[in-house]
Design a protein that fits this description.
It is built from five helices and five strands. The two termini are 32 Å apart. The model has no long low-confidence stretch (mean pLDDT 83).
């Protein structure tokens, strides 16, 4: 039963990655085009002995490569297949990583996202990858539901319960009660 559950979780991850792939491709194509242009301009700066301009371009290229690396690392972590490992997981960071993976879709429908407060460190006992998978699935469903919404908005909030905290995610899609 555990093996079957693990296989289903992994399959769901791969399905979500398929949906995210188009957005990631877009996210990577923009910096790659910028890198090409910046590298060509850096050559011109060097030919003109304008070292500061070349240095600025190279710094910008380095920043873009870091951004691209961050995108691909998130996908690698997300796709990894391994048994559940419960640990103290930083909730806000995990939410932000999930939103990062969906950033292109969020921008495409111009959704406003009301995030959790960044000033509190909140840890939950969970498997980090699986928590991220659940969050990506819920947020993906919210984005799908708001595809034709005039004012797409996702709100996230934490509420105390008798047993701990509850993460509430609400969207402006038609949805169900």
């Amino acid at each position: 039963l555990r093996e079957t559950q693990d296989e289903l979780v992994h399959s769901a991850k791969l399905a979500a990655i398929g949906q995210i792939a188009a957005g990631v491709t877009h996210e990577l194509n923009q910096p790659m085009a910028a890198i090409r242009s910046l590298a060509d301009n850096a050559k011109v700066f060097l030919d003109r002995e304008q070292k500061e301009g070349a240095r600025e371009n190279l710094k910008f290229i380095s920043d873009l490569v870091d951004r691209m690396s961050s995108i691909t690392n998130q996908l690698k972590i997300f796709a990894r297949k391994r048994p559940a490992q419960l640990a103290a997981v930083p909730l806000i960071q995990t939410v932000n990583e999930s939103l990062f993976l969906l950033d292109e879709r969020i921008r495409r429908i111009q959704a406003q996202v009301v995030r959790l407060p960044h000033d509190a460190e909140i840890f939950v006992r969970a498997d980090r990858d699986r928590l991220g998978q659940v969050l990506v699935n819920i947020l993906s469903n919210a984005l799908d539901a708001m595809a034709h919404s005039k004012a797409p908005r996702i709100e996230m909030a934490l509420h105390e319960t008798g047993e701990g905290l509850a993460l509430l995610i609400r969207d402006t899609g038609p949805g169900l009660e």
